[in-house]
Amino acid sequence: MSNTFREYVKKIGSGVHTGKDLTREEAADAMKLMLLGEATPAQIGAFLIVHRIKRPTPEELAGMLDTYAELGPKLEVDNLSFNYPVTVLGTPYDGRARIAPVTVLTAIILATVGVPVVLHGGERMPTKYGVPLVTLWQGLGVDFSRFSLEDSQNILEKTGLSFVYLPNHFPQAQQLITYREQIGKRPPLSALELMWSPCSSPKVHLICGFVHPPTENLFRETLKLRNFHHFTTVKGLEGSCDLPQSRTAIIGMNQPNDNPKWERLFLHPQDYQFKGKDVPLESTEELLKQMQQVLEGENNPLMSLAIYNGGFYLWRCGVCNDLKTGFDEAKTLLTSGKVRQKLQEIQG
């Protein structure tokens, strides 16, 4: 048992009138005690459920991410030979259960034009047990679960796309996953996965998906504390960074200038002839079939969503000067076979 960790639980768990938030340093230490297994399971479970009820502060999340940066894996990105900064796509680890994802297709589209992309996650996990990204990659012939961190680094340098796989690359964080099932709720750790960059430098472009509007401000304040100034927030499909076609996309953009500027974008799909229903996720097998068809340039319900998302991110990452050009370019890349060729390169 950790006496220090017990004090942290007491501090945040003393109720509305006497409970207090942790400092950034205390939150960093609490996370370290959990990752290193110095806190007991009872202490960790108590901390996670109390912290969910209390709601984490930006300072607490910044401290926890400080420890992720200290103990977690880091892909070296400073000396990559690409013309664009690395884009990190932050997607909920518990996957997708209702609407078909296009995050993997977006990543390949960006890599095709020289925007390096890093994704991260693990296997199916609570509380949703949705389809994780690693399963989709496996279905497309790339098994990131078998790669070492060195392999992932080499793939990033060679192809401009890589994946940090929790069970292999960050087992300390992986061992905390079981608590999600035991407490029956997403703990505050689930917010970390949307903001975490498993890269060696803060000079990356973070894409953070979210569901609830207060989460966006939590992202902004936390990332500001951690000196991450190039980021995009997306009220996306099931909390991911996938833009919806069925409603207006609510997007926040922080620009990495000397004086960082926050901008709001309400993207209406009907303005670009993308208005329609989001594609239901019927099964993993059907989704993979649809993704393969898109990569072959065939028109199906998922193609429109892939073009919409790919085009937006081509514009947001600086490849295209305006959204219409981005959408046109995404369509061309998919129908010409260039994205399929990029996948073949990643497959090795």
The gist of it:
With 348 residues, this protein is of the alpha/beta class. The protein is built from 17 helices and seven strands. It folds into two domains: 69 residues, Transferase, Pyrimidine Nucleoside Phosphorylase, Chain C (Transferase, Pyrimidine Nucleoside Phosphorylase, Chain A, domain 3); 261 residues, Pyrimidine Nucleoside Phosphorylase, Chain A, domain 2, CATH 3.40.1030.
Task: Give a structural overview.
There is one protein chain. This protein is an alpha/beta fold and 348 residues long. The protein has 2 domains: 3-71, Transferase, Pyrimidine Nucleoside Phosphorylase, Chain A, domain 3 (Up-down Bundle), CATH 1.20.970; 87-347, 3-Layer(aba) Sandwich (Pyrimidine Nucleoside Phosphorylase, Chain A, domain 2). It is 48% helix and 11% strand. It contains 17 helices and 7 strands. A 7-stranded mixed beta sheet has the order 3-2-1-4-5-6-7, sandwiched between helices. The protein starts with a helix and ends with a helix.
